[in-house]
Structure formats: C-alpha cells, structure tokens
Amino acid sequence: MAWIGERDLGTKAIAAAAPAMVTLRIDGQDVAVPEGTSIMRAASLVGTNVPKLCATDTLEAFGSCRLCLVEIDGRTGYPASCTTPVAEGMVVRTQTDRLAKLRRGVMELYISDHPLDCLTCSANGDCELQDQAGAVGLRDVRYGYEGLNHLVADKDESNPYFTFDPAKCIVCSRCVRACDEIQGTFALTIEGSGFGSKVAASQDDGFLASECVSCGACVQACPTSALIEKSVIAAGTPDKAIVTTCAYCGVGCTFRAEMRGEQLVRMVPWKDGKANRGHSCVKGRFAWGYANHRDRILNPMIRASVDEPWREVSWDEAIAHTASEFRRIQAKYGKDSVGGITSSRCTNEETFLVQKLIRQGFGNNNVDTCARVCHSPTGYGLKTTFGTSAGTQDFDSVAHADVIMVIGANPTDGHPVFASRMKQRLRQGAKLIVIDPRRIDLVRTPHIDAAYHLPLRPGTNVAVLTAIAHVVVTEGLADEAFVRERCDWSEFEDWAAFVAQPERSPEATEALTGVPAADLRAAARLFATGGNGAIYYGLGVTEHSQGSSTVMAIANLAMATGNIGREGVGVNPLRGQNNVQGSCDMGSFPHEYSGYRHVSDVATREMFERAWGVALDAEPGLRIPNMLDAATDGTFKALFVQGEDILQSDPNTHHVAAGLAAMECVVVQDLFLNETANYAHVFLPGSTFLEKDGTFTNAERRIQRVRKVMEPLNGYADWEIVQLVANAIGLEWSYTHPSEIMDEIAALTPTFAAVSYDALDRLGSMQWPANEAAPEGTPTMHVDHFVRGKGHFVVTDYIPTDEKTGPRFPLLLTTGRILSQYNVGAQTRRTDNVVWHPEDRLEIHPHDAENRGIREGDWVSLRSRAGETTLRALITERVAPGVVYTTFHHPATQANVITTDYSDWATNCPEYKVTAVQVAISNGPSDWQQSYQAQAERSRRILHEAAE
Amino acid sequence: MSTTDHLVYMANQIARELASQCPDRPVAATRDHIRQFWDPRMREAILGYLDRGGEHLSDTARGAVRLLRENAERAD
Ligand code: SF4
Ligand code: SF4
Ligand code: SF4
Ligand code: FES
User: Which letter does DSSP use for residue A357 in this model?
Assistant: First the structure.
C-alpha cells in the first residue's frame, strides 16, 4: 500500500555521486535534474503528478500500465513517462485533452474488472487505483461489469500478517518486482498471460507454503488492497505516522509507526532510513504484537524467596525494596558484592543509566552486558588492530564491493535486510566467498551462486584465515604500498614471515580444517585480486575460544590486502541485537567507561568523577561468567538485570542457575517473566520500544531515534525506572527526558560529542564518531589513518579448542538462529511468527542420522559433558557429516544446557559454536527438561490479591 | 570447574595466546592482560593459588602471576 503522507516520485533517484544535470521544460516549467532521471520523476519534482499505476519510486520502471503517457515536442506517439529518460531541451506536456482521453480509456479497462466496493474496502482512502481513477476523471465505464472478470477468485489468507485478494489485483507486477528487486527472494511470478494472468506465490502454493519469507515488500508495493496487512483490515487505515527504529536486530531498520489514534495499525519501513532504505523483514514489520501479549507483566512484584509465588506490589514498594536490599547486601558483604547487567535491547540512554547506577551508586565496576556472549571479541580484536571497537563501514558500502567474504554469519536469517542489499550487489556481479560449516542459504539462492564455499570444521577459523593469508603473502598478492603507508611495516614483516611458514599453508592444514586446499587458494586469490574486498562476519567468528584471535586474523587480512579506509571494503561485524553496538559504546563493560576508555585511565575517570560528584573505582569489575563464579563462591550476592535473559542465553545453564540461586537479591526488569526471573526476587515490569524515547546504535555505528508512539502500559519507560531506583539509593538524578541523558553522554564521550536529539532530528541519523572533526558523523572509518595511528598486525597462531570430540562425544554441535525468531524468542514466540518455527530442531547429516537409526522428526537426545536435552531431528545435507546444528529460540529446548563454559581467551565470550556431543534416539523430553518445566511453572505463580 | 580451576584455565589460555602474539614479552603481556581485565578478587584468587604452589599454571602464566604479585607489593 502507498505511504500515507509520503510522496512517491514514481521512479528511483539516480545513484551517481556527481551526475551531469539536464534541463527540460515540463508543462511550461523549467527543471534541472540528473541525467538519466525519468520524465515522471522530473515532473514529480516540480509538483506535477503524472498518473501512474505500475511505477513506484522504490522499483525499477516497468512501463506496463500505460497510464503515465505524455506528449513530447518533436516526438511521435505518447511515450510512457516512467520509462523515458529526460533529455536536454526537451519540452514535455503531461496534461492535454488527448492524454486525458487515453488515460481514461486505460483506467476504464482496469475498473471494469475491479470490484466497486470502495466504500467498504479496507484500503479505502489509501488506494492508488481509487486515486488515479479520480486523477484521470473517470466517470463512467462503457464496458459494464458483467463481462468475464476475476471477482470471485478466492482470497489467500494463509500468511498470518497479510492477505492476497486476486479480485483486487490489477496485475501491475509491482509485488513481483518488489520481491525480486528489493527482497531478492523471487517468490512471486505472474502466471498465465493476457486476461488469464495472475499473481502466484512459488508454484501457486499459497503465500505461507511458498518460498515467501514474509518481508512484506510486496504488500508495501501493492497499489490496491490486493495485498494488504491484516492489521489494516482489522483496524482501518492509519491517520498519522511517527518514525522510529526496530527493536529486534542490529540492522536497525527505521519505520513509520502508522497509527490510528493511540492504536498502532502497521509498521512501514521508512524510505529515508539510511540503514534499511525502505525495506524490512518479517520481524520488524509484523512481529510487534508481543507488546500487547497477555503474558506481559504490568505490575511490579517481589518475593522473599524464589520458592514463593510472586506478590504484586506498588511501584513505590518495589523500588524501595530494591534499594534497601542492595544497600543491605553491600553493608553486609562489601561494596563489590553487587552488580548489574545492561541490556542490548534497551536504548543507549537506558544502558548509560544502568552503568551509571552501578558506578556512581554501587561504587564498583561490576557491570556487563550481553555483548559478553556475542561480540566482545569484536571489541577487543578491532580495538587492538585498528583502534576502534566497531565495524569500519556503512551498509551502503556493500554496493561498491567487488568481492564479498562472509565468515561465520548467516545474513539472510540473522540480518535479513542487509542481506537483501548484499544480494542486490551479488546479482550485479560481485563475487561471493562463504566460510561457514553450514551451507547457508546465501551460498545458492536465486541468481546468486557463491564463487567458493569453504565448509570448515567448527573451531578452525584461525587456521583457515591464516592459510588464506599464507596464499596472499607467498604468492605476492599483498598490497605492500598500502601496508607501508598505513601500517607498522616491521610488524607486518613478522606477521608475513609467520603466515608464510609451510605448516600454515592450505595443503598443510586441509586435514585439520576440512577445507579443500585448491578451493582455499582460489578463494584467497580472488579476495586479494578481485577489486574491493569486503569482509562481513558474525557470531561464527566470535563465539569460540579463539574469537578475539579470529577477529584479529580478519583485520590482518583486510590490512594486508589494502581493503580498509574507503567505500566497498572493510571489516564489518554483523552485530546481533538492535543495540548491542550501543550498549558496548555506553560503558557496559566492567573495564571501560563510555567510548571504550579504561577505568584505570586517570584523566577519564576524573572527568566522570567531576560530573557525577563521587570517587569512582579504578579497578575493573566482574564479567557475567565471573559474577556467576563469584556468586557460587559466596562473594557476589545481588544482581540487577535489565532486559536480558541470561539463564536462557548464556552457556552452561546449570552453572548460570547455580550462580543465580546463590544470590540473595536478583532484580529482573523485563517485559515478561523470562527464564532468569525464575530465580528473581524483584520483578520490575519494563516498557517496549513503542512506549519510550531514546536512541539505538546499529551495526554500522549509526545512532537513530526511537520515538514514543504510545504510553507505557506498565506506567514507566525503562529509563524512568532506573532513575527511580537510583534516587531511592540516594543519587539525585533529575532527568526529565532521554535527550538530557544523551547530552550527558555527549559531554562525557568524545566520539559522541556532536550527538544531540536536535542533530538526530535534523540529520535523520548519525554514525559515530561525531564530533568537531566530523559534525555529521563518520560513514567510513580509518580513511587516512587508523584511529590508533598505524595499523597493528597481530600474529594469530591456531590453538585448537580444548573442547574435543572423542568416542563418547563424536559430533560437533554448532548453534545459530533463523529469520522468523529472535534470540531467546521472548518477543517473537509471542507473535504469529511461530508458524514458521514452532520448535527448535536438530539438523543432522543423513549419514550421521542413518548410523544412529534416526528418522526425520524423531525425538533425539543431545548430550555433552555439560548436560543433556532432547529435541526433534531434521535430516539435511546443509550440515557436514560429523556436525550437528540447532537454534536456541525456545526455552523448552534449552540448547545451552549442552554448551560448555569454555570461552574466548581474551574476553570470556562463550564458545557456543563448538561443543562435542552425542546424539541418540529418545522417547521425548528429558527428565531435566520436565523438572525444569515444573520448576519454571512453580516459579511463575503470581498472587494478584496483594496488589494495591 | 571450580572458580580457581577456571581462573587457572583462563590464565593459561591467555598466556598461550600471548606467547605467539607478543613473542618478545609474553610474561609481561599476560600480566598486563590480567591486570586490565580481572577484578581484584580474581587476581587475589590466582595469587593465592600461586602461593599454594601454582601447580597447574603454565610457565608463562606463572611468571605473569609472579609479576602481578611484585606489582601488588610495590603498590602497597
Ligand atoms: S512478503 Fe516478501 S518474500 Fe514474501 S512474496 Fe512478498 S516480497 Fe516476496
Ligand atoms: S497484487 Fe498488487 S502489486 Fe501485485 S500485481 Fe496485483 S495489484 Fe499489482
Ligand atoms: S529485525 Fe532487523 S532486519 Fe528485521 S526489520 Fe528489524 S532491524 Fe530490520
Ligand atoms: S506508470 Fe508508467 S507505464 Fe505504468
């Protein structure tokens, strides 16, 4: 459907940086536009809307409806303005009697096959067919409505979020083109021809059963109500819109939250959003129903022990209780006996306040964040090599890449909107190298075929990257000029000598890594010589014993091949959660203040001390796993957890549970009674991203506004709750709006110096560093020199993980996620997205399945040294023999019962991606799963009558 | 793994990585890493382990913990 309140200029803007300009005259008005612009777009720019149906400015012009005809002096006929480019001196008329007549004729044909139920149609008032009928002045249909038509065709309501009504379809193919061009799934076709032509999903399977991934691009592109959101059918068309940012993943899509009064009707990706350029995935566009789910907790609750049911209390009581518990525990066990965890789901401002509460209020540095379990090695590795704990590019950069290397990431599932943009570039001819144990979807998808897929054995990343470096160095493919100018040359020489050792070669490491040497050599040559080389990586890189080393190996490779410091290249971590970049930036790590400055740095600490009026601790605090260790040892007693579910998301569930159980006060601030809350003593109900103001920072370092579209159902935005707790322990905070928190962040953080809500409103978004040197932000980093000065090469020796397969545990388990579910699934499981992923399954190769007598769908037990769980099997060749794979979206599976407490050497990021396991046929859920379920149910009891 | 076992494991893991990353000064680099990232009670615990013989610490890790001890004493 059309964008309410937004103009559609009909065709796309010309992408060139400095295009030649062309001047023409349209209906008597002179206009200058970039060469290559369509007449339709030029006319729109001077305020003349040429009637159109098949054109829209998010798609390539198609020229099928013939409604946009114009007259051009000196040319015969009536060319379509959407497909005709402007020319110097052209004189165009868009409104003549002749044109009006022709357009009415076209319109008449459309309308004669269209139900005339406009008044009761769900798109009434928001329909381009209706608008265009008005625009061309159609008053009468000469053919009557009795002829052959499509009015009785069945509706397809299979997709949970939108319907397809063939009767309303005008076969403009905008949906087909949106699926191809924008999303890149190629799920739709126009079947048949002439009058018999119709839209079909896959082989006319219906939307749900087709390849459709429910991104909604087709729905957005449809000019009529043929494809329309069910929420619009239910609630009516929206009447206002507020721009905000998705709270699911690190792509950071911006949306127009389209409202009808206080009710959210639909989320429509914002065309001006620089991260998503008007596209989105199924989660951001459709899966927001959790905000009103009946499981959401709206009243604060406390209890003396986790065996008791919850007691609903007033906010005053809950806050006072929290403050007195933390003070009591600190008085009894010492100031370092408490700490907290910030949330990558919450805003920068909220995260900043939680770490401030801990540093200023609790007087220690015991603060950590869920980035510990995902991208902490990125922070360490990129800071060591380049000087900044973040990716080097913006997303637009991928449009300039010639060779794209994807390592340990599954963008079509994990970062779908960025994946669509990457696929656009690959369809234009960029080459793809995938390094992943699984044959991820990207390896072969419509019109894309990876040049190389290197299916390495889990845990051998460093060996593979070093072998690639070996080829680059020994075959003379390194970019020495770049290295001499930009990096430390003698470190490069040491590194080059190391990687050139014969035992690092692809041939020498093939047996270990499982990657055919010839493929690896060819991939290395392609990367080093194929033009702009861009590396994108994910958790398959970081979640290993050698996560930080792998990040540094990637940085070495980018420097050695000169692929840093301009568009189209770079090292790009695909960060998981919506604000995981931001939570790291905001000082959520126990050794760093905002902007990644160590707590022992005297000048920085003094600046914070002056601002906050207290002495601050110069010693690093505990990381999450160390907090849990300290809890079982009895020295850590209270934890404040905002918006994280460490019991489900952190490794070795038994250990996490033991740590939580050993604490005297666990406070959980969340939307739902999550798994961690089973061990909590205080529950503070949180607010959703729709209910608060703030900012998120996405994987490109892009800071974007989150805007409140409705009042918090729980009574307070999350930042207000933290402020209540802070004031109850005696801090005198007086923020009246999150913009004031951002002002404080900017004043205390050099890389944020130029950031303010005014600047964000003016610019739409900003990529840090944003300061005096770059007042509007920095899309590409390390352009003239590295942030640390000279690029730093680090020798990364391959050290195998101690988690090893053997006779008892012969298979390697690796974990991941899928498109429709999000992380621990707390939100997505409470939406219709469950139709695509009702349970976690274990992917196993047919060979391994057969050896064990396992058939598709069988219950199997999955056992490691750490624990055991059961789930159902999915037999597939996506995984190599010897490797099994599962997701961790459902608490019933508790995949982390299996994962061990091995972790990255530098950051303790857990080794989720390698666990030695055994798989065997089983009868159903394990004893542990059953007892856990019973305990969880007991722990979630609520006594409502006690509420005030 | 007990907390101490875990700390010993971590110290050895750090030492092993830094041995190749900083071949000129692996012991000092390991000490620096521990100093920068471990909270005082973790450092205390590994020092206690060293005092009890430090049996399972690798040579580099043991050297690093010794250095840590010297620094701590100098700071007193
Ligand atoms: S929802 Fe997305 S994937 Fe599905 S048919 Fe439409 S454009 Fe294609
Ligand atoms: S469903 Fe909509 S977009 Fe697709 S062809 Fe029909 S009218 Fe056009
Ligand atoms: S989940 Fe990620 S890709 Fe999907 S809409 Fe939200 S930000 Fe965009
Ligand atoms: S809008 Fe130009 S042909 Fe349809």
Answer: I
* Sign of the dihedral through C-alpha A748, A751, A753, A758: negative
Q: Is A477 on the interface with B (CB under 8 A)?
A: no
- The pair phi, psi for residue A374, each rounded to 5°, is -130, -70
How far apart are the C-alpha atoms of A869 and A252, rounded to whole Å?
34
Atom of ligand 1 minimally distant from the CA of A178 = 7
Between the CA of A247 and the centroid of ligand 3 the distance, in Å, is 8
The pLDDT of A418-430, averaged and rounded, is 94
The reported pLDDT for the residue numbered A1 is: 41
Q: What distance in Å separates the CA atoms of residue A132 and residue A135, rounded to the nearest whole number?
A: 5
pLDDT range class, residue A747, cuts 50, 70, 90: very high
Domain that holds residue B9: 3-75
Question: Shortest Cα distance from A490 to chain B (angstroms)?
Answer: 14
In Å, how far are A167, A577, A906, A936 from A686, measured between CA atoms? 44, 17, 33, 20
Task: Give residue A171 CA to ligand 4 midpoint distance, Å.
Answer: 12
With an 8 Å Cβ cutoff, is A600 touching chain B? yes
Give per-residue pLDDT as tens, A552-575.
Answer: 999 999 999 999 999 999 999 988
Host H or E run for residue A762: helix A757-763
Q: Are A874 and A880 in contact (CB under 8 A)?
A: no
Which residue out of A655, A905, A909, A911 would a mutagenesis test of the B interface target, given it has the greatest number of B Cβ atoms within 10 Å?
A905
- Of A271, A345, A220, A184, give the one whose Cα is nearest residue A828: A345
At position A609, the amino acid (one-letter code) is E
**pLDDT, mean of residues A713-739:** 95
Q: For the stretch A181-209, what's the b/e string if a residue is b when 16 or more beta carbons lie within 10 angstroms of its beta carbon?
A: bbbbbebbbbeeeeeeeebbbbeeebbee
Distance CA A722, CA A643 (A): 12
What is the 3-state composition of chain A as percent helix, strand, coil, each rounded to the nearest 5? Answer: 35, 20, 45
Is the Cβ atom of A226 under 6 angstroms away from ligand 2?
A: yes
Residues A227, A173 contacting (CB under 8 angstroms): no
ipTM associated with this complex: 0.91
Number of domains in chain B: 1
> Do A821 and A833 meet the contact criterion of CB atoms below 8 Å apart?
yes
Judging by beta carbons within 10 Å of its beta carbon (0-12, 13-18, 19+), is residue A16 exposed, middle or buried? exposed
* pLDDT tens by residue, A455-501: 999 899 999 999 999 999 999 999 999 999 999 999 999 999 999 99
Nearest to A487 by CA among A561, A554, A548: A561
Do A862 and A821 touch, CB atoms closer than 8 A?
no
Please provide the average confidence, as pLDDT, over all residues in chain A: 90
The predicted-structure confidence for A581-609, as pLDDT tens digits, reads as follows 999 999 999 999 999 999 999 999 999 99
Taking the Cβ of residue A796 and every Cβ of chain B, the question of whether any pair is shorter than 8 Å is answered with yes
Closest-lying ligand to the alpha carbon of A279?
A: 3
User: Which residue from A904, A895, A854, A582 is spatially nearest to A745, judged by alpha carbons?
Assistant: A582
3-class SS letters over A154-177: CCECCCCCEEECHHHCCCCCHHHH
Name the pTM for this structure. 0.92
Quote the distance between the C-alpha of residue A750 and its chain's center.
26
d(CA B44, CA B49): 9
End-to-end CA distance of chain B: 32
Residue A527: per-residue pLDDT: 97
Chain A residues lying within 8 Å of B21, measured CB to CB = 549, 794-797
Q: Which protein residue has the closest C-alpha to ligand 3 atom 6?
A: A284
Sheet strands (E) in A436-564: 444-445, 448-449, 452-454, 533-537
A926, A929, A933, A939: CA torsion to nearest 10? 140
How far apart are alpha carbons B17 and B26 in whole angstroms? 9
